[in-house]
Amino acid sequence: MAVLERSELEASPLADLHTIANEVGLDGFRRLRKADLVDAILGESSAASDSDSRGGEQDRDGERPRRRRTPRARRSKDEDGADAEGSTEETDAESDQSTADGAGKPRRSRRRGARAGAGTSAPAGATTAGDTRTGSSEDAGDTPARIAAGVVEVLGNGSAFLRVDPPEPSDEDVYISAAQVRRCELVSGDRVTGPVRTPRRSERYPSLVRIDTINGESADAVSDGARYDELPVDWPQERLALGSKDATLEAIEWLTPIGRGSRAIIVGARHAGKTETLRRLLGTVQGRDDLEFSLVLTGARPEEISQWRDGTPAPVAALTFAASADSQEQAVERALDAAKRVAARGGNVLVAIDSLDGLSPAAARKALAAARNLRESGSLTVIATASQPFGGETTVIALDAALTSTGRQPALDLVNSGTLKPELLVGEDGAEAITKARAAALEAAV
Hints:
By secondary structure, the chain is α/β, with parallel strands linked by helices. The protein has helices at 6-11, 14-23, 34-60, 77-98, 178-183, 219-223, 247-255, 274-285, 302-310, 325-344, 361-369, 401-405, 423-445; strands at 146-154, 160-163, 174-176, 191-197, 207-208, 213-214, 217-218, 233-234, 263-267, 292-300, 317-320, 348-354, 372-374, 379-386, 395-398, 418-419.
């Protein structure tokens, strides 16, 4: 091994020091400051030189010396930037990937910390920047052992597993980083192929180095398609039929109708029954083969979380009111990102959020704005609870706390409720009936 000079190391960029540290087999180098990293490299290099000397002695005794890897050439400026940006992400994801159990559900890891959120980081060796099909953090010597093919199962933390023998987990399953899931817009059920590298010392599962094909097409071609936010949209035109005998739900269905692609919000004062109304509403539409569900609890009471988990659909994320605003916003964003991918490929998704009050107003509006009725594809419907509207909703369902507290039904505050362009959902006669009902409610309130 060539002698490494301290002055040369101190003058080298951090990305080059990471490359050298990897070549000399230094563990945990990405967490070190530059000065400490230089010291560690010099110490490891010295040990490696001693080892090489001993190896030479063994060679003279007739044993074949260990082959040394040639350091990689200095990476491009873009790759250096990606490495610096993803270094922390890579370290956290190694822990996340190494602690995932055989069923694909990650166990809790102390190394991840609050900074890692719900584990959306990419594992070491997975794609973190640049081209869709090329992993920029693929290390020298990590030659893919095989080409894997299977079905994607996306986890609640944003990462995924490639099930080679779906739907059951197996020892041959391959970990897919959250970064690759987002970049390639993968959804559960996608069939993908790609090269695999063996697990590192801190990992339990082999990892997908890159994604070559998605559902038989090139990953590059799929990723270069139109983005969700760029697809043309229409007003909601297909009403979600509730078919409930509950007086409040019946009033919602016909007086404040919700369609596929609606941005609906259930508002009211405290104890107005927002969460209970959302629960009953979801109970009427669940179980449909043509509609996927995703429930996110943010700022909820612990008792409410337990109650939600005992029923269906179970929440994909559940945070109490003690969680930070950032954590709540990230949970909502992850659920909506997954729903967007389903809608862009022709599926119909309903994302329920209880509630938006723990998010910043900008984040709440962004969550509502994700709902779309895509003209040439599927739909994403958002139904959320909040203390008041944020703006941009197509349907506002206002509840009257006085009616709820006294048990009177329906508990709908029709004066402050409404749906934009209801004639597209209930027809002209239905829209006229809504107008008359609102006028009568307004006269009664005066």
